[in-house]
Amino acid sequence: MFADLSVTMSQVEFFGVALSWAISSGIYAFRYRSKSAYYTATKMGTESNWYETSDKIRLYGGLALGCLLATTQLLAIFGIVTSQLNGLIWMLVGGLGGMILHLAVGVMRFLGMEAAVKNSQGTVTLTDFTAKGVQAGATIVAIKGDTMEDAVMDAASMIALAGAAEGWYFGMWNDATDEEQQEWIEEWEETVATRAEEIAADKGPAAKAEEGEQGEEAKEGEEGEEGEDAEEGEEGEEAEEGDEDK
């Protein structure tokens, strides 16, 4: 009962993380940054507006990935989709897809920063310098602000997912067949045995010498105990002989 409850609550937490990602991306894309003039301040002359491109990819990509993960996770909660299939989707879409999305956004943000710096350095007159400086500053502030926001949201999501990971993976284990579970156990046992051999090999001669010293100390301790027992036995016999003489 408690295991099933743990699995369900873990899946609900995964669903909440995915849904939060989708809602956050959607509300920014269609509400807060939907006006066409929003990205005007970050346009660098004839250069491409890399900040606008990166932001739209981030928002629409996050909306798509978040909706897909939330949908499959919700289906898994109600048993329509198996936990194993849901886990595969999370690994491919959330893991690999999210990594590619973040990489693409990061590259475009870097290009936007470079364009801002290049545009501000190529000025001649004071008026031109002031105008381009304002544009460059707005671009840099916007990129850094979004980068910080992404970092905070990613950290919060990772903490939430890590706390629910045990129950979530337990659900995948429960949905597996007996043959699959046995295969996983054998793989784990093989991994443990291999790592144990590697650790033993890494110890080297120093560890063997230390084990030899410990063995010698143990032998000396045993010999000392035997000697003490023998002395006590002799003293006891002498005492008994003295009593008999009396």
TrEMBL record:
Keywords: Membrane, Transmembrane, Transmembrane helix. Residues 190-246 are annotated as: Disordered. This is Uncharacterized protein. The keyword Transmembrane helix applies. Residues 212-246 have a biased composition (Acidic residues). The chain crosses the membrane at residues 12-30, 59-81, 87-111. It comes from Favella ehrenbergii.
